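BUG: 3D viewer hangs when loading the predicted structure for this chain

Environment: internal workstation, default settings.
Expected: structure renders.
Actual: progress bar stalls at 90%.

Input used:
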Amino acid sequence: MLGCMTPHLTVISTRIDDIPLLIGMLIQMGVPELYDREVKDHGHHEGLSGGWLLTVWLTFILSQGDHAKSHVQEWVARHREVLEKLIQQPIAERDFNDDRLGSVLKRLSHRERWEALETSLWRQQVSVYEVEDESSEWVGVWMDSTTASGFHTIEEVGLMQRGYSKDHRPDLAQVKLMTAVAQASGSLLASDVVAGNRADDPLYLPMSRRVRTMLSGKRLMFVGDSKMAALATRAEIAWYRDYYLTGLPNTGETQEQKAEWIAAAVKATSDTPEVVDYEFDRENKAKIKVDGRWRAVSWTERVQLIYSETLAVQQQKQLEKRLSTAEEKLRKLTPEAGRGKRCFLEEAQLREAEQGVIEQHDVVGLLRLTHRVEEREETHYVGRGRGGANRPTVTDPSRRYYVADVQRDNERLTRAKEHLGWRVQVTNAPVGVMSLSESVARYRQGWRGERHYHLLKDEPLGLSPLYVWKDDQIIGLTNLLTLGVRVLTVIEAQLQRELKARREVIRGLYAGLPKQATEHPTALAILKAIARMEITLNCVSMEGNVSKHLTPLPSLLETILSCLRLPTALYTSLADNWVLIT
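Structure tokens produced before the viewer hung:
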């Protein structure tokens, strides 16, 4: 009887999910090529080039939602064959060790190389994705800053410092990131990492100069919140014949003049209820330093007062809360006399304490206080020691001042409420370039810049907390993750643009809602939807033969790839027919 042997069968399954898509996008954006050209590897570098190291590492971060260096090498080992086929480069075991990745971060921290890379990435994006300027005359640029924290030991000289935290973590050390975003496309133009205790105001001019170099030949419209409103910043922008649009802070001269401006606005718009905004021109003068020489610059500025009913309601609630708190504290200033209770023996002391409460809660002039004085006579023995029937006594008169009543000044309060809901912004753009209503709309587009911070801090990038400790590594990692932001925004912009051109919507992106349609899909929703598809590459080995099989591509993925101008071969080429192992 002949024995029969069962063939030995081995099946290895690998989830590939969004890896081919991300690799394809990074290649399409020119990331490996531009890194190798602008940043360059060290002269003694061996193995996979820095550009390909960066490409694979960014793919890991975006796919796995993890920017820790220690997890990359094991992930690459599991996906080595797939990655090698996608990037058409051999990968050695040591390519993604901690030292190699740290070297990439160090080179990304070099300011001149990083700025050159950002400039090249923008020009590549304009070329490949046909990013259109919003106007033939000028380009809008939103500038702002954010912070990223970590559990770092603060050193006297270093990036990680305590400062005003935009993450509401004042207990942690932080760095600050200054950014510029093209308003039309929502694309990140440039970023700069500075110490976490730096003030925002001085960061705007260096960033505006960088953007002016990147977009040379174009007139720019710089837009930012009130931290961009320093006179020197506005003066330099005007000197270079660019435009600005910024809110004015409620401090200094603005705080003194704002009440008059609002009164004029209220009067001017009272007869026309349909008109709620108001503006006037004023002349500005300043001296700025240009190329080492002081220059006098003068320009006309439009002061715009914008009314928002939503803001008015919000401010009225805040005012009511401040008033109630101040009233309560003022009444508690002078409790009933007793042991351990504070007494005001002089009226000046009481008024000083009252003024402190009123200023603390910003209700100056809105409350009227009534004082009472309580006069008493206190009799006590002369000298020290026990009293007795024959011991002499002395009687001293005393006064105690207290708050008898706290009432609101309704007349002044009514006038104060009329001034709620107004904010002030300024621009040097003439009316022919940008009307008042267009100014309002453009300033409100600031959310485009703010959204990049959510992409940077939320999944999958998760900038905070930072898991590197040296300054060059902190700068390099932050710069690396801003490249990730660029990938996500390109995916969103390209997909949304293509859907609009096709007049189509996309369905199936959201878990549990297969029929929900959207024409504005987010990159995060796309990556999550692809992860739920569980696209798997199965490698089957039997008797020396290997067969690779890929799970069928869902139509949703094919649509996404088509809109992103990526071939389905990124996935299908990973599987082939029977191959004989020799």
